[in-house]
Amino acid sequence: MPRIAYAEPGQEARDATAVYDQLKEDMGIVPNLAKLLGHSGPATRGMGALLETYFKQLSLEPKIREIAYLTAARFNECGYCQGHHEPLAKKTGLTEGQINQLDESGFDSPDFNDAEKAVIRFAFETSRDVKASEPAVEDLKRHYSLTQIAEIAFVVAMANFVQRIGKNFGAELEQ
Fold first, then answer.
1. Every domain of the chain and the residues it spans
2. Domain boundaries 62-168, corresponding CATH code
3. Where do the DSSP E strands lie in 28-119?
4. Who contacts 77 (Cβ-Cβ below 8 Å, separation ≥6)?
5. Is the pTM of this model over 0.90?
6. What span, in angstroms and rounded, lies between the C-alpha atoms of 172 and 151?
7. Distance from CA of residue 175 to its chain's centroid?
8. 138 pLDDT tier (thresholds 50, 70, 90)
9. Do 106 and 123 meet the contact criterion of CB atoms below 8 Å apart?
10. Other beta carbons less than 10 A from residue 52's beta carbon
11. In whole angstroms, what is the distance from residue 37 CA to residue 79 CA?
């Protein structure tokens, strides 16, 4: 049970309706995370903009995007986010074994290439320490363009932002 009531469709703030409609069109549902924010139109619109950017606007390869997001979700022990993003990660080619290594064990795993390991380390350190180490940033710079690095940082920051809302209010995975 969530710690605050969901703003179910029809109960959302008036200026949250457009986001609800777009989420329903894109995902087939209004995710419970959005319903936690649905009491505030501006907060819901902000979340909608983040999701729009994440799923439709980033140039980052989806596999790298999911590695970054899921590493943060696993560090933060966010079952809700893992429940949504593990199926997405599998669609990008990640195996169950690789998903289980999206933590410190992935830094040196032979199951990831060096570029993927750099993303895991950056996402893990950023989630744990807020600021990744200099070696982690330098490793990203060896493998990715500045555009890609900016997008990886966006994904990790977004994951941590979303997970603070979901975990604080007990977002439940939709059935």
1. 14-57, 62-168
2. 1.20.1290.10
3. none
4. 167
5. yes
6. 28
7. 20
8. very high
9. no
10. 14
11. 18
